[in-house]
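Hi R.,

As promised on Friday, here is the backbone we talked about, encoded as structure tokens. Could you run it through your design pipeline when you get a chance and send me back a sequence?
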């Protein structure tokens, strides 16, 4: 019985305590008061704050929220509308952490008024926290600190409040208005329309992911629509004009926006754009007429961006709407005959279907055999998806349900969505007469392009064969991108890409043996590394159909033929010949002898193959070996200048490339540089022609008699010798030489 009595006593005590707390909930507890001894508000129950009222300058701001349901803030006065939640939360934080700056009448407040301005307050208000209500009055300005003000909470003793709190209490209600002008997000729209005197556009939702362009009957580009939605997002209110001004300045709209939500029963949105906003020359008036009225000053740039969009600019020219990193599965399958004339895919070698799916950071292959792809194979698939995403049609037309004959089909899967593209016939091989016409039914076209059918909108995309080849199954679809993938040491390099050259490694690195008598440029290692360990941009065809500019099999290997590089290895086995063909697909087509597949090499690799590997340092002399430097320009000595600067210029006289071999004749000499060596002997004489300007810079053709070659040197390296002593006019003379000798020749052309 004793135990029951104890339990009953504890229960009664708990109930009594709860009743006491409930009855006392509208009072500040002693604990709250102690914790917030120096705060403006002696208690702050953030989760209970449900109403804030501030009256000043003839308007009353009221912000309310359902605190129990943790609802967002809304404005109920001076107007009913949404609130900028971030601004409301900043205000609540300012109130919560506001502190008493100082007591009224302390030493720093000498000369304060006896009334403190409370007889004509600048602002009054109240904060409601459940049953607890704090009322406050903001009086006059305090002399110290600057911007502060006198404040009284309830009937408490007046004190000085900070400038931050004073400014917050005096802020206009516009500070807390929602800055969003557009009533609906793009995800909520069934139809979006922009009209202006010069035109406009309309898009209608096709499904949950895409829109169709009214009048064109094809899908709108996802990236193009992102620009539209981005312009709408920028249409946030910078300020709020008076209603009368908004009506007057939008009476003759310069642009109208109509929005139809996809949810049944929701009202349409309508906005009109007018003239410049009063006091805001970079903004224009935007009046939202529906579903609720809002007048705003919005950035002119966002409106101009919408006005500049034409329907044709919205057309989706890509086979798929997904980004490459969104695609989870890819299936390529042949549905017709694929041969060497159709995508360079030899039907006997290419699988009828290839299907891969992402697995972790790599890919798993389902067809033609079930296996995990290696890291290098997965890299090839990732690059393929990137290239497909980058590819775009030259033309897009409405299919209107017309028949289409496909030779292949490509399907991608992302999330819950699939998209399929059908591939029409490829142009015939180069030796076959092309058919006539430019049909969109999937048959071969006379212009050499290929037609795709985008199944989701029945659009016909006219694309290059390069893009179409990526959408058919090939034996090289998942081939690693390594060009040779060799680990053997290269012992000899034979170059037939312009100037015939041969380099051999006898233990001290690759050196020129043909032509003989030249120092070797060390950049040859970049070419070798690019071929034996570097990657192609992509493998693009299983066989050469004659359209890649590569040498035909059995053609004579003469110097005038297509560019080729032969590598032999230290073990003496299986040399490799890499051939380069025509430019295309962002690089240069290439192939490896003994293998039919065609790859695209980086342009830089092809440039290395064409380079003359004579040392680019043939003209320079190390500064420490120089006794003196003399410069003659247009037959006249250049006035003496700092010897150290001239030595540095001579040490930096590197060529960009060797232009020709066998002769050191540069033509008419514009500048002669004579370099005397510290150890004696004949001086080194470097001669340079006048500068010439090309698309790649300003260049001079230079040479020295000791090397039977000419070099292209950046004119700035030679100009360093022409800067005369202070007060001279050499710079102007050299500028005149530039002007007299401009031409269109490119020193990098071969």
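Update: got your reply. Pasting your designed sequence below so it's all in one thread:
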């Amino acid at each position: 019985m004793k135990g029951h009595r104890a339990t009953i006593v504890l229960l009664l005590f708990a109930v009594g305590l709860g009743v006491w707390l409930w009855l006392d909930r509208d009072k500040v507890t002693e604990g709250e008061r102690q914790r917030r001894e120096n705060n403006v508000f002696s208690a702050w129950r953030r989760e209970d704050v449900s109403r804030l009222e501030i009256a000043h300058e003839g308007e009353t701001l009221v912000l309310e929220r359902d605190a129990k349901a943790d609802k967002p803030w809304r404005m109920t006065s001076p107007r009913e509308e949404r609130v900028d939640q971030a601004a409301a939360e900043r205000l609540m934080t300012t109130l919560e952490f506001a502190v008493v700056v100082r007591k009224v009448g302390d030493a720093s407040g000498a000369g304060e008024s006896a009334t403190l301005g409370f007889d004509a307050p600048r602002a009054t208000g109240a904060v409601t926290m459940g049953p607890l209500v704090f009322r406050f009055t903001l009086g006059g300005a305090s002399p110290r600190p600057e911007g502060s003000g006198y404040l009284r909470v309830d009937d408490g003793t007046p004190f000085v409040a900070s400038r931050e709190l004073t400014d917050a209490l005096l802020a206009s209600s516009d500070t807390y208005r929602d800055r969003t002008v557009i009533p609906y997000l793009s995800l909520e729209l069934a139809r979006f329309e922009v009209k202006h005197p010069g035109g406009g556009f309309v898009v209608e939702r096709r499904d949950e992911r895409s829109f169709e362009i009214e009048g064109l009957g094809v899908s709108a580009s996802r990236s193009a629509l992102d620009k539209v939605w981005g312009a709408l997002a920028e249409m946030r209110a910078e300020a709020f004009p008076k209603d009368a001004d908004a009506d007057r300045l939008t009476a003759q709209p310069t642009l109208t926006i109509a929005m139809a939500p996809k949810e049944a029963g929701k009202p349409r949105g309508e906005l009109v754009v007018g003239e410049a906003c009063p006091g805001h020359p970079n903004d224009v008036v935007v009046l939202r007429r529906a579903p609720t009225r809002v007048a705003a000053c919005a950035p002119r740039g966002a409106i101009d961006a919408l006005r500049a969009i034409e329907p044709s600019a919205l057309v989706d020219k890509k086979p798929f709407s997904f980004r490459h990193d969104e695609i989870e599965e890819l299936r390529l399958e042949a549905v017709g005959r694929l041969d060497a004339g159709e995508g360079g895919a030899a039907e006997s070698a290419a699988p009828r279907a290839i299907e891969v799916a992402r697995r972790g950071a790599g890919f798993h292959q389902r067809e033609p055999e079930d296996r995990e792809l290696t890291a290098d194979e997965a890299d090839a698939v990732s690059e393929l998806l990137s290239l497909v995403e980058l590819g775009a049609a030259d033309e897009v037309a409405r299919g209107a349900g017309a028949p289409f004959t496909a030779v292949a089909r490509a399907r991608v899967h992302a999330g819950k969505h699939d998209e399929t593209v059908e591939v029409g016939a490829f142009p015939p091989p180069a030796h076959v007469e092309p058919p006539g016409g430019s049909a969109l039914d999937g048959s071969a076209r006379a212009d050499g392009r290929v037609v795709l059918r985008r199944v989701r909108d029945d659009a016909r995309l006219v694309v290059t064969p390069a893009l179409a080849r990526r959408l058919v199954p090939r034996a090289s679809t998942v081939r690693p991108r390594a060009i040779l993938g060799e680990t053997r040491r290269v012992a000899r390099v034979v170059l037939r890409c312009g100037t015939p050259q041969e380099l051999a490694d006898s233990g001290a690195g690759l050196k020129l043996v043909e032509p003989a008598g030249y120092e070797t440029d060390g950049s040859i290692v970049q070419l070798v590394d690019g071929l034996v360990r570097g990657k192609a941009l992509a493998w693009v065809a299983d066989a050469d159909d004659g359209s890649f500019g590569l040498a035909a099999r059995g053609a004579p290997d003469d110097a005038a033929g297509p560019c080729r590089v032969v590598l032999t290895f230290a073990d003496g086995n299986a040399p490799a010949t890499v051939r380069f063909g025509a430019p295309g697909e962002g690089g240069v087509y290439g192939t490896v002898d003994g293998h039919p597949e065609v790859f695209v090499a980086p342009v830089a690799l092809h440039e290395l193959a064409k380079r003359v590997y004579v040392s680019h340092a043939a003209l320079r002399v190390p500064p420490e070996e120089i006794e003196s430097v003399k410069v003659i320009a247009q037959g006249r000595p250049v006035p003496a200048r700092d010897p150290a600067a001239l030595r540095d210029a001579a040490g930096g006289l590197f060529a960009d490339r060797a232009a020709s071999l066998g002769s050191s004749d540069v033509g008419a000499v514009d500048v002669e540089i004579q370099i005397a060596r510290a150890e004696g002997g004949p001086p080194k004489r470097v001669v340079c022609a006048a500068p010439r300007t090309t698309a790649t810079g300003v260049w001079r053709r230079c040479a020295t008699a000791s090397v039977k070659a000419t070099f292209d040197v950046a004119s700035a390296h030679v100009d360093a010798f022409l800067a005369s002593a202070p007060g001279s006019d050499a710079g102007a003379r050299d500028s005149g030489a530039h002007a007299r000798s401009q031409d269109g020749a490119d020193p990098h052309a071969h």
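One thing I noticed while checking it: The radius of gyration is 39 Å.

Thanks again,
M.
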